[in-house]
Amino acid sequence: MPVFLKKLLLWGFVAFLIYFMAFRPDGAAQMFKGIGAALMAIAQGLGDFLTGMMT
Description:
Blueprint: H1 3-23, H2 25-54
Helix pairs in contact: 1-2
């Protein structure tokens, strides 16, 4: 993928996030809470897996 296209997509994504947070703050907060919960579940699962391997 050309560098210009990557930069364009990145800036478009950043602009969308800013727009989303400015005009739908409740929806943005719920989305970030969901992402955080998913990351925590992944980390917990990985921790449980590693603990199970050690015992």
